[in-house]
Amino acid sequence: MSVLSPVAKMQFIDSSGAPLVGGLVYTYAAGTTTPLATYTDSTGGTANTNPVVLNARGEADIWLGANTYKFTLADANNSVIWTVDNISAPTTAQSPVLSGNVVINSNSSNPALTVTQTGYGPVLNFIKGTNSAFYLDANGHIGLGTTTPAQQLDMWGGTLQLSSATGTAYTDLSANATDSFFAVANDRNFTIQTNGVTRAIINSSGAAFSVPITGVGSNPPGMIATFAGATAPTGWLLCDGTQYAQTAYANLFAAIGSAWNTGGETTGNFRVPDLRGMFLRGTGSNGVVSGATGPAVGASQTDTYLNHTHNVTDPGHYHQVAFLQGSQAPGSAETVKPYPSTGSYSTNAVVTGLTVNTSTTGGTETRPKNYGVLYIIKT
């Protein structure tokens, strides 16, 4: 494919078709009378005089910067011939064919490469072999491996990898027909932050959230449940009084704090509840049943019975003593004085002051019939 060469050197002629010898070319910023420099060569290092004075052939080297100009042409007597506004370096033309290595060097504050698309076609299309490797459409959508990107970035059949400055892979983002994958290398944390604050951390030890997870079926950190298995499931810990690092289970620590510490914890650690062999009771005083008061969160109560009494009633009683006339009471060392006749006499009734002792019976605690389960707590 061949293309038409651009004008190598600008030449101006007068009304008779002769070179405009000594003609003057004034250059301004588009739409203004503010002088704007042009340059003597492609480097843009040396500015032309303004106006540019044409040579004996009516020619001049006029290189434009990355700006839009207004040109005014005058003859040697400074009589204006014409003025043309909104002139800029070409941005569209017949597509050139470049071979070999193309290097763009720039030493200015302006973009090294600016591509303007005023039509409906793509802005850029880099092709590797027969496939489009990088495609930028007119809507600003980038396609990697596709010429029909559906979103701002659309990658077909590959993995997006985030790496260190030395090329060490840190994170991969990929998908297939059934699953989407966000994979981190080694045992790195997958951290979610909002407004500079960590909200969630996912790693090989589990997931920790510093905000409540709401919705159907969700279990907030610190929730205690019973479990019929022998070990705690993923995302839960046994309520066995073990101490853990606050940073390892930040969400759980945020929920329960140090309420279940028993003393002797390592600095930066906290304990989960030790509920082995224990029944649970609601804390605080019941508003319906008088006298029903549970301990504070993290506190316990010892075995006890409701205070009560056992009553033993002695109604009082008396004993009858029989006497026979002129006889002595059996076994008595004293003589019973004779009474006028045989009969019986009653003693006075009094309370004896009896003491009743009950014997000890039962086991080492008071409990209802029960089954054993695991108490577990959500991390």
Q: Please give the count of helices.
A: 1
Estimate the helix proportion, in percent.
under 10%
- Mean of residue pLDDT values: 82
The fraction of residues in strands falls at 25-35%
Tell me, briefly, the overall form.
Answer: rod-shaped
The rounded distance between the terminal residues' Cα atoms is: 68 Å
Helix and strand composition category? mainly beta
Unreliable parts: 331-337
Q: List the strand order in the largest sheet.
A: 3-2-5-6
Total E-strand runs? 25
User: What letter string, H or E per element, gives the SSE order?
Assistant: EEEEEEEEEEEEEEEEEEEHEEEEEE
Cα Rg: 52 Å
Q: How would a textbook summarize the main sheet? A: 4 strands, antiparallel
Mind sketching the topology for me?
Blueprint: E1 10-11, E2 24-29, E3 52-53, E4 59-60, E5 68-74, E6 80-88, E7 124-128, E8 131-136, E9 142-144, E10 153-155, E11 160-163, E12 169-175, E13 180-184, E14 190-194, E15 197-203, E16 206-209, E17 224-227, E18 236-238, E19 243-245, H1 250-256, E20 269-271, E21 284-285, E22 293-294, E23 320-323, E24 343-346, E25 374-378
Parallel strand pairs: 9-10
Antiparallel strand pairs: 1-4, 2-3, 2-5, 5-6, 7-8, 8-9, 11-12, 12-13, 14-15, 15-16, 17-25, 18-25, 19-20, 21-22, 23-24
Tell me what the structure shows:
Among the domains are: 10-88, Phage P22 tailspike-like, N-terminal domain (Tailspike Protein, Chain, Beta Complex); 124-155, no CATH class; 189-280, no CATH class. The protein is built from 1 helix and 25 strands. It has one helix at residues 250-256; strands at 10-11, 24-29, 52-53, 59-60, 68-74, 80-88, 124-128, 131-136, 142-144, 153-155, 160-163, 169-175, 180-184, 190-194, 197-203, 206-209, 224-227, 236-238, 243-245, 269-271, 284-285, 293-294, 320-323, 343-346, 374-378. Mean pLDDT is 82; it is low at 331-337. It has 379 residues and is mainly β.
